[in-house]
Amino acid sequence: MTVMKVFSPYAGGWTWRRLAVVLSVLVVAMTPLVSCGREEPLNEPRERYEMVDVDYARAVRLSVAEVTGGKLVALDLKNPTSVEPVWESQVADEDGQLTQVRVEATRGKVLGTSAGPTRTDAERQDLLRLLEEATLLPGQAAREVADTETGEVVQAIGLDRRDGVPVWKVSALGVADEQATVHVVDARTGDVLERHDA
Questions:
Q1: Which of 39, 40, 119, 190 has a CB 3.0–4.6 Å from the CB of 123, allowing a cystine?
Q2: Nearest residue to 95 via CA among 70, 64, 130, 75
Q3: How does pLDDT run across 122-160, given as a tens digit for each residue?
Q4: Please, which residues bridge with residue 87 across strands?
Q5: Could you give the CA distance from residue 85 to residue 160 in angstroms, rounded to a whole number?
Q6: In 3D, which of 197, 195, 105 has the Cα closest to residue 145?
Q7: For the whole model, what pTM was predicted?
């Protein structure tokens, strides 16, 4: 006589419960892997710039320290997505002469300094007047526009004049942004005068 075995999910309940738990764990574990396979741009600036450990504020301090009586005129993050990102700055001395300073953006090591572009006496005097009028420091201007809570990254800061008014132009990349925004900040009051794409 042949005995037919009937398949029943209720038979061997302990085994089925263990199998269900294992399958649940596998589904949960596979979910992030599936989402990682999507070809979407990185949303967080800090993911884009994972090698940049030195922020703009520290780069300003390190650059200015290299020039006696120095004041920052411009700062720019070069090669931010590479393994060797560098902050490049221009710092004016007490006579209005510029020095270029290169700072490693991973560890903060000063890579070197060199003489900036040659300027006429009139250009140097104009720069000194501009620096004197700019009572708002570059770091303060950057803080006016960069929201660190949302992970916004400052890429560049530069002193300029707009309609006779000294301004800081701060380029910052926000969360999910593909292009940086330039914020034009009044270098005396801290008011944001304009915003446009970089």
A1: 119
A2: 70
A3: 999 999 999 999 999 999 999 888 765 456 789 999 999
A4: 77, 103
A5: 25
A6: 195
A7: 0.73
pLDDT digits (tens, 9 = 90+) for 67-114: 999 999 999 999 998 899 999 999 999 999 999 999 999 999 999 999
In total, the chain counts a number of residues equal to: 198
How far is residue 40's CA from residue 91's CA, in Å, rounded to a whole number? 39
